[in-house]
Amino acid sequence: MSRYVFTRPAESDLLELWEFIAKDDVDAADRVVGEIRDAISRLADMPRMGRLREDLADESLRSWPVYSYLIFYRPDTSPLEVVRVVSGYRDLAELF
Known about the structure:
41% of the residues lie in helices and 25% in strands. It has 96 residues and is of the alpha+beta class. The chain has one domain: 2-Layer Sandwich (YaeB-like fold). Strands 1-5-4-3-2 form a 5-stranded mixed sheet. A hairpin with a 2-residue loop joins strand 3 (62-66) and strand 4. The chain starts with a strand and ends with a helix.
């Protein structure tokens, strides 16, 4: 059984992130996405590690940074549900 799952928006986010970086450097894109996946694996082991985001959602939602990207996930789900993976520069209130 998988320790985490992606919502469809999170899957799209990760692909778009990879494509954006890969335009300039495929190796860098692979490295960034790999580090995001490593962080998600750690979050699956310790889901309370991230920052509680009561400012963005009524439900239990947390975030964890990797470079300038934020992983948004639901810590109370099993497997861990990754909701979005977005740039921290985006209007987060608009996303949620």
